[in-house]
Amino acid sequence: MADDRETVDRTTIVETNGGGGGGGVLAVVLLIVVILVLLFLFRDQLGFGSRTTEVKVPDKIEVNVN
Questions:
Q1: Three-state secondary structure along 35-52?
Q2: Distance between CA 22 and CA 25 in Å, rounded?
Q3: 45, 51, 62, 65 - which has most CB atoms within 10 Å?
Q4: Residue in 43, 59, 63 with CA at minimum distance from that of residue 51
Q5: How many CB atoms are closer than 10 A to CB 44?
Q6: What is the pLDDT of residues 16-27, one digit of tens each?
Q7: CA distance 30 to 23
Q8: pTM above 0.70, yes or no
Q9: pLDDT at 2 (0 to 100)
């Protein structure tokens, strides 16, 4: 007994919720990395990169009491 029915092609459509949400997160992470690199490169001009701390102490202190 042969199957005489006609073959029917079926297509399934799957809807997703947006999909490309990772692009925004990637942009924020990239922006943070760029800011950190710029802070590192210009740390001397911003006052963050001082390797030595210089404290000047006077030899004598004059105190006048009236």
A1: HHHHHHHCHHHHCCCCCC
A2: 5
A3: 45
A4: 43
A5: 10
A6: 776 666 788 889
A7: 10
A8: no
A9: 58
